[in-house]
Structures are given as C-alpha cells and as structure tokens.
Give the backbone structure.
Amino acid sequence: MIIAGVAAMLIGIAALDLPWLIREKKRRELIVYAICLAAVSAYILLYALDVRFVTSLGLLHRFFEKTLGLHYGGFT
Amino acid sequence: MFSFFKKRLRHSQIRKQAAEASRGPSPKPQTPVDASLAKNLHGIKALFGGSEDFVARPFLIRGERKAAICYVDGLVKSGLIHEAILKPFMIDSRLINDMDPFALASMEDVTAAFLVVGEVRAETDLNQAAEMCLNGDVVLFIDKMAEALVVNAKGWEKRAVTDPQTDAVIRGPREGFTESLRTNTALIRRRIKIPELRMDPITLGVRSRTHLCVTYIENVANPALVEEVKRRLHTIDTDAIINSGYVEEFIEDTPLSLFPTIYYTEKPDVVAGKLLEGRVAVITDGTPFVLTMPFLFMENFQSAEDYTVRPPIAFVLRLIRLLSFFISLVTPAFYIALTKYHQELIPTPLLFTMAAISDGLPFPSAVETAIMLAAFELIKEAGIRLPKPVGQAISIVGALVMGQAATQAGLVSAPVVIIVALTAVTSFTSPTVSDVTTILRWFLLVLATVLGGLGITLGLLTILVYLASIKSFSTDYLAPFAPLQTPDILRDTLYRAPLWSMRTRPASLKPFDAIRQKMSKPNFNDNQRPGRGERRR
Amino acid sequence: MNAKSRISGLQFFTVTACFLIGTFLRITSITSVLANDAWVSVFTGAVAYLPFLAVFLGLVKRYPGKSLFEINEAVFGAVAGRILSCVYTYFFTMILTTTLLDMANFIVGFIMPGTPITLVLAAFMVSCVYATRKGLEPLARISALLASGACLVLVVNSLLTVANADTRYLFPMFTLPFLRYVQGTHTTISLYFGESIVFLTLLPMLDTKTDIKKPMIASLLFAVVIAFLAVTREILTLGPLLPYVARPSYETMRIIDIETILTRIESIYAFIMISLTFFKACTLLFASASGIAQITRIESPKPILFPFGAFVVVFALQTYPIVGDFLYWSSNVSPFIFTIIEFILPLLTLLAAWTKGFIGSSQRLHVKKGAVRK
Amino acid sequence: MKSRSFTAYLLSGILLCCFLLTGCTSGAQIDQLAIVMGVGIDKGSAPDNYLVTAQIARPSHVRTANEGGAAQGKPYLDIQQEGKGISMAMYEMMRQMSRRAYLAHNEVIVISEDVAAETILPILDYFIRSLEAKFTVDLVIARGTASGLLAADSNLEQMPAKHLQNLLENQVKNASIEEMPLYKFLSDMLSPGIAPTIPIMELYTDETGIQNARVQGAAVFDGGTLAGTLSAEQTRTLQLVRDKVKSGYINLDAFGSYVSLDITHSKTSVTPRVENGRVIAKIRIRQEYILIDTGVQADITTEDAKAQLERLAAMRLIQSVESLLQDTKAQGLDVCGFGQMAYRKYPRQVEALLETWPEQYKALEVEYDVETVITITGSILRPMAPKGGEQ
C-alpha cells in the first residue's frame, strides 16, 4: 500500500509541470513524460497485484553470472 | 481534469488584461504659466481645491507691480519667506530710489538683483510648480511674467538624530538615520568626505512622489551593479512608496523567498562601511531605514560592533551568532528526532530523567514541542506589538505561565520547555534572520516527526541548495563559502581579520577598484633595530 | 541547466572531490574480500586506473567542452551515437539505483529499523530532484562545503577511534590468495574510480576553455588519500572482525566509547554519509537526465526530472527487494558490468575518434601532397 | 517558468509532509521503552535452552537530579524468561512486558560459568547481530548463577548492573584485570594464537550480611568454550606481559621487613623469533618505582641497598611470569598471545605451527631482560630514626 501511496504522490508532483508544458506545446517532453509515468504506474500495478517479475537489472545480473560466468566466488 | 487546466489558463489571461485597463491617474497635461497673475493664481488654487494649508499671498512690489507667492504652510521656513522674499520686494525696493518694478523683464533679473535666497529655479509649467509647493518650496508669480520662480525654503518639523532602536551597539557611533532624506544624506556625507560619493535622486510613486536617493562611490562600486539597481528602480510603477520596505520588495531578486537579499539598517556608519566595500545604498525619504545591496547570507551575522571590538572577540561574537542561528533552526526538530528515533544517542542518566518525567504526559513529544513553539510565537508577537510597559508585562506573564505552570500541571515535560526557551533566545541574536528561522523551524519539525534524523538531513540539504541557488544582484548568496573564494573566507566572514590586513575589497562584489589600502602590520616597538626599520619605510 | 550557468575549474575540482569521497567512504566490498590488506587495493586500484584516466583525458582533449553524449554523436554519427548514449544513460541510472538502494538499505537496516524503504527512497528522491531542478551550479557551489565537512568529520572520527586503534592488526601482510587481490583491485577500479566517467557529462557546464586535466587528477589523488585514511582506520580498529562486518565504516563508529556522553554517535556519522550520497545522487540524476534530453533532443532536462525521479524510485524498489541479492550483486557481479561500460566503450569511442581523425588528416595530407605536386 | 517552479516546490513540500505523516515509522516514544541495563544468562532446563535475566530500570524510582524525589522501591526490576536461544527467550519475555525491551543502554552481559563451560558463541552472536546492542558492552563470567550476581545489591550504585560495570572499570584502573568488551573478545577469538580472557566475578556475603560482588581472576577461553581460569595474581601478571600496567605496587620482603614499591612507569615489549622450528619469545620489561612504605628502620637509600632491592624486584617479576607460563602451559592455553605475535612477525614459518599451537606453546622458550630502577624514595631522603639510632 505504501508504495502505491508514495508513487501516487511522486506522480502528483510530476503533474505540476504539465500545464506549463501543454501551454508551451513541448511535444517531446510530453512524450518522455508519458513514458515515465506509464512505466511508474505499470510497476505499481504489478506490485499491487504482487506479481514478481525480473527487471532489466536482474536480467543483466543473471546474464553476466550464469551465461558469461563472470563473477567472483562470493567471498563475503 | 483537462478542463480545469483550461479554465485556469483563461482566468490568468483575463486578470492580466484587467490590470492593464485601470492604469492609475495619467500624468496631467502641461499647463504653461500664464502672463496674467490672476489666471495663474486661479489655476493653482483650482489644483489645490481650497485645502486649508495651501497659502497664496498676493503683494505689491514697491507698491506698484502685482506679484504673489504660494506655498504650503508647515513645509516651509516662514521666517525665511518673510526675510528673504517679502521684505526685499515690499520694503527694500522702496529704499532704492531709481528702482522701476516694471523694468524686471524676467526671473533672471529678479534673482540677480533682488532675491537673497540660495537655491532658486525658474519653472514654466503650473503643475510642476504646484508639485514644488508640495516639496516645501515657495513659488513666486509676477504679473505680466510668463514664468514662475521656485525658491527652496524647506523646513518642516524633523526628528532629531537619536540613538537607533535596532542593532544597538556598546562601543560605536550612536547616530541613527531620521525620516528626512536630507539629514540622512548629510549623515553619510560626513563619513565619506569625497566628491566621488554619488547621490543620484529618483522620484517614485505616482501618488506619493517619494524622493529616493541611490548612493554609491564612483570608482569603488561596480558600475554594472549601479546600472542594475537604477534599472530595477525605474521599473517600479506603483501608486505610493510609503517606506523603504516597499522598495525592497519591488527590486529584490527572489520576491517570494524567505531569505532577505537586501539589507536594511538604521546606522550611518554601517551604510558607510558597506558603501566602501563596493555596495550600493538606497535612501528613501520618510523612513529611517536605508537599504544596502547586494546582501549576502554571511552579512546576517556581521554587526557594526565587530569592527570596533578586537579581532579575536569579534570572532567569538560571530561564532555565537552563527551557532545560535543553527541552534534556533534545528533544536526542536533534533529533540523530536532524538526522543522518537535515536534514543541511543541520549546518555543513560539523562534517559532516565526523561523517561521518568514523560510517564504521565498526555502528548507525544512532537505535538508537545509544536504546542510550546506556537505559544512562544504568540507571546513574542504580543510582546512586540503592545506599547512598551504593557509589552514587558505580557512577556513576563507568558514566560511564567509557559514555564512553570505547564510543567507542574503535567501538560508539558520540562525538557520541552528548556528546548523552546533555548530556541527563543538563540533566535534573537541576529534580527534579520530571526523571522526566517521561525518558518523554517516548522518545516524541519514536520520532517523530523516523520523521518527523524534522515528528515532533518534532507531538510537542511534542501535549504542549503536553495540558498546556493539565490543570487542577490548577480552575486552568489553564500558568496565567500559557496563559490569558495578562500581569501575572503579568512578575511571577513567567520573570522574578522585585523583591519590592517584587509588589503582588498570582497571579491564577490566584483568592485571596480579592488585595492582598499596598502598598509602592512604596524610594528612600532622594534625601532631599536634600525636595519629593519629603514627597509620598511 | 540554463546555458549561462558556468562552473569554474576550482568548482569542478570540488564537485569531483565531493563525488569521489561520497563513493570511497563506503568501501564495503573491498574490506570483506581483503581483510587486513584492504589498504593495498586502494593503491593498486589507483595505479590500475591510470589507463582509464588516459582514455578519459584523451576524449576530453579531442572534444573539449563536449559532454559524453555529444562526443558519441560526433564520433558515431546521429543514430549509432544515440544508441551508445542510451547504453550510457542506462548505466548512469543503474549506478543511481544502486547508490539509492545501498543508502536506503543502510538506513532501514541500521539506523531506523522499521521504516518502510519506499518512504526513505521517496523523500530522498524528492529532495534530490528539487536540488537538480535548481541546476548544477548551486550543487557545484555547495560541493566545497560538503567536501570539507566530510573531511572534517573523517578526521574527528579517526581521532576518536585512535584510542582503540591497534597497529598490530595490520600484520600479517599479504597472506591472502592472489585472486582476492585481483578482485580487490578490480572492484576499486570499476566501482569506485571508474564512476568518474560521470564527469564527462558535466563538461559543457564548465567555463569555456578551462583545462580539466589538473583538477581531475587533483581530485582523484585527494580521493585516494581519503580512501586510504578511511580503510586504515577501519583495519586498525576492527582488526580480525573486519571481513565479518557488513558496514565497517559504521561499525568503527560504534566502538567509540569515551565517558558516557560520546558513545553511540554512529547515527550522526551516518547522516554525514547521507548528505554525500545526496550529492552523488543529484550528480547522477543530472547525468542521466541530460542523457535522456540528449537522446530525445529536448533542450533542457528540467521538466522531465520529476517523472524520471519517480521512475528511478520504483525501479530501485523493484530490482532488488531482497537485500542479500543486492549485496551479492554489488560485490561480485557488478565489477564486470561496470568495467565493460566504463572502460571498453570509451576506449572504442577513442579508437574510433582516432581512426576518423587519422582518415580525416590523411585526406588533408593527401590534398596537401596533391597541392604540392601540382 | 520561474513562478511555475515555486508553486511546484511548495506543493511538493506540502504533499511530502502531509502524505508522510500517515506513514508508520519506527519511532517509539521514550515511555514505550523498557531500558535494559544488564543481561544475565544462565543454563536453561533443556539443552540449548537459556534462562535470560533482564535487569530493567524503572525510571520513576531512579534517584535522579531533578528535585522530585524518587518513588519508593527498587529502581530496577529483574525479569526472567527461559527459551531456546537468546532471541526466543527475549521474544517470550517481551510478551509479558508492557514495553519493548531496549538494549541500546545495556552496560554488561553476565554469563554463568556452566554456560561458559559449553560455549558462549550463540550468545555473543545474538548481541553482535542486534542493531541496538552496544558494540562495546562488557562481558563478565559469573561464578555460580548469573541472575544471582545481577541481584547483588550494592551500597554505592543504584543498580547492580551499573555496580558491576563500575567495579570492572575500577579494577582496570589499578591494572589487575583487563576489561573485555564484546568486539575485542570476538576479534581475539577470531585471530589464531591467542586465548582471550574474560573477568570472573563472584558473590560473597560481607560482614553486614549483604550479598556483594567482587572480581576474582579471569576465565580463559579457547574458541568460545571455557578452558581454564586464572587467579587474581596471574591476571595481574598477564596485564604486565600485555603491557597494560599503568600503575600498581610491588611488596618485597627485604632487610627483615616489608618494602613496598609503587610502579610509576612500566614498559613491556615481547619480540618473538623462530629458531629451528621452535618459537622463542624475548620479554623485555622496564619498570620504575618509588619507595612508598617500608617497615625497615635502617637507611636503605644507600647504593647497594637500592641495587639489592632492584634485583629483588626483578626476581619477583620473572617468578610471576614464569608461574603464569607454567600454569597456562599445563592447560596449553596461550593467554599472552605469543602465537599471535609470532604469526604477525613471521607469517610464513609460524603458519604451520599454528595448527598444533597448544602443543607448540608447551615447548615455548622464554628469555627475560628485566630492568628495574628505583627513582626516588618519596619526599624524605632518609628514614627518620630517633636520636642515637645506630645509623
């Protein structure tokens, strides 16, 4: 629940710049805006439904460790 | 949701047009001074509409030529009018036998022969003449002469130069500015006796016509800075400038910011010091507070006394002021963070006392501190606003009630009262910053309640970044520290270097002429070693 | 962000120094690998970083005053350049996420157990975005304050712990298997020194032709000294406990026990660390935002900062919910990822730039030859 | 853009604050904490069970500086709970308390002898992992039950836990014991070639019938289990070898009566070396004394008398170190850490020896180089003797 609340707040603050962007008709910023907000809401949705999925960093980690075998022996 | 934005956009446009339409009274058309005296008098009386203190006195020059003087009673030195204007025209002109009043063709002959007054100026426009009356001048009309003569006879009741209330000083000059512009400029002139000290006049306020004076030292202050100040002053197009606070708000860099970027002071020696450092001052007629700009964050903690007291003590005084600013900002928040999140920081015996006390307390420490802080603000405001005797009583009663009764009644715990008292005392050390801390304190309080130590750190970092981003007249607000001009840090911020070592002016103000003095360490007592002595001279 | 905000050479030094101190004071992966020889890896790391530095300075000399993304496009043309910039931006976001996660786990794990991690990340991100929206110049200005504050704290802490220090813990030296020293050096190069690739994105903010060679090397040396001081302090106080402790710089603070007042002051030390992480996060946020701005051709990255911040917070929460995986990743797998991006890609860019330069100059030579012959 | 950004900050500030107010955070008011001052650990009934005694301070009963008097009754409260492992015991204990047990101000951990006989590692493991516990908490081994020791009421301090801690600190000041905080014990235990020691305390009933506590030598550990004990005298010599002696005194029988020398300066340095597969340690001790008290009437400030006293003092030092070594060699416990010192100096050669260090320690050879100097004989030059004395 907390994560949804906090993310909603972050989007709320992000929306503050919208009126200015719309008035200045900054096409590209609005696209970037949309992508970011879409990604955030997607994450929240999945988190709310507690669907565990692997993010890009996780993929990179698995790729480097399993396929390339490039890792130290985990001395810690 | 989208319509809401659209409505907001349209609304702001409408408001803008409305502001354009109802512009204030446009300046009156030019009405030339007429040759006939009667018409002139009628015209000027119409302007003043029969207000009781406007005097128009007709008289005869040498008993033959008609003339009249107009002035506002109370603004002029009546003695001067009788001696210097009326007497020569009416009496002395009779003694000169071959004097023909009608031979005076223009005001030049009048000023050349008759008037003994110092400052005179010819004037051709009636409205302008009327305005001169309001400034305390006397306007002379002579029949069959198409111009008026404005004679400077200013002299109204002025407050004497008294001991200033704010930033009192134990050792240092006791003179404070007064409401009259001329006295203030005189006070500064007496401290900087060089012609390069410029006093450029500006009149602002469509209805108040207040006189302002931009003061700077020609080859010291940065010309760009002077230009910038004048440009900003000219942009002011408002109804009235009652006191320097108005000017400050109109021309400061960050209108909505908590931190002041323009300094105001009542002491001429402080203004003189700042002018010599390369700053610009604006003196407003009608207020004893002179504005100096640009103003940096460190100046909050500098006071006039630092330059008269010996350097090490000055360092201690400044350290106390800086620390007390920080303490009054952070203590309430830190107390809450300590009791709520980081109990292990409290030494054990203190923890027992606090635990013992806070057993029967109704409020959690956060709410408790908030209540006490609000109460303290209440009492402080009441203490200031009431006249002197009643004010004292209020603050004493307030302190007693807040302190003793609340603790004994078990409403509030003793540590909270101590913390609030500490915050109160430390917030008064530097006046210009005390109002800033009252607001920021609440901001940090909330953050501390929610996030504890982390909240305070983030709050302080945000404030630091905000301070670093402000500019006061294109000089960085945290000048010697943030952009790291190290020679300045050692000289005049925390540690006030001895006066003989301050060779250059602060670099952050980009002064025109940076060299302040060429002195070196005065050593007068090792003259018995001639070799060293000679070489130095 | 606006064009006229300029940073002077000295400020560049303080920015880089502050960034590097923020990174170096949290050397956990080295101490867990090389127990009491960790200080060696600081020096071997510094020496091994020199080729990195040469590539870095070579790129700067060839394209002065240009940011990393502009260099990519200058060398590889619009499309390929932008793809490379995408990789770099992703890399910067990755460092940003790992720093935030590292800090958040530290706070939630050590100082304020029980606070939900989202709260910490969100509050941190809001203040970071606020600071970055103000542009990089205010940050550059306060970097001097933060850096000197950090050094002061480090010195004071070292003095406090000197009472419990025991020089005999330094011995026996060099008794660990050689592979561990390789891992130590590799981690130092990639995780700590290599992160200075971020400074390539700050170059357009610099005054026109200020030479950045001197401040860059000065700040690296400064960081090495600070790192050495921090690591030796930890070795001297913790001794054999060092490899078993999760956060050595934090644990050394817990050993201070002077009278009854100066005990348990480690949370104050932690907050100083947080302000350094704040500075580092702002710089990284600025770097990745200007990367996105460069790729999508918007003039100033200011408006997209808030949504991007929100994205990073959620991304951080999602990648490593379990602290254990994160610690394992950061000490064992990340060195390889970082080295590739920090060393091999810039090397390729430099080589490409040289070959382009070579072809270019050979044509000019050709023409000249041609002219001479005619 | 300018005005727009200000409203953005304001709103973000307010949003942040009002939203976060609802967040449940880890804050706990002071009156929701049970401040644990001391922890005692005894053997539980079943194996692997521990009987944990937590001494909790009752703030309102503690006599503090503020003028309100402390309520009647003991300022502390002992709560006992048995459980499988420390955490279970603590968890059970919390179920019966109105407040959360707060370990941050815990001064001392008392472990009973029979628990130490098995192993104390699981106990220390709990305390070092816990984030609240102090890293520098002192360890004490109780002869008999730990809860008994914690209940020993003291005349000077308000709480037994505080009393035990101050007692320890006082002993350290006159160099008769070494305070063993948690982190030092673990680092000694982890490094090969040294057997860490923890002070032992025991209860005794003094003449007025009150149960009081006193320090009685030290317990020697071999990797977490109790392996042997040292007497009070031996622990003082151990301090000497570990160069921890700041002050102290030596009592010699010379010239027919006693002579007491006060140690003003003491420096010990141990230099191990390896010869044909065996470790030889060279102990160099340099001490300076002041003659503070003597029963001898004769003038003992003459040169040869002083030389004789110095020789006696040197002999006493060597004997004490020898007796310490004989005892510890019998049990094969390298208390002074010669193995560690040797390993640090010559890691290659000594590494092999360390595997079987208890046996190697038995074959350890020690050379002495003791230098004792009597500087002055207090404020008077010659002992005052009545007129006609036989000077």
Q: What stands out?
A: Chain D has a mean pLDDT of 79. Chain D touches chain C through 29 residues (CB under 8 Å).
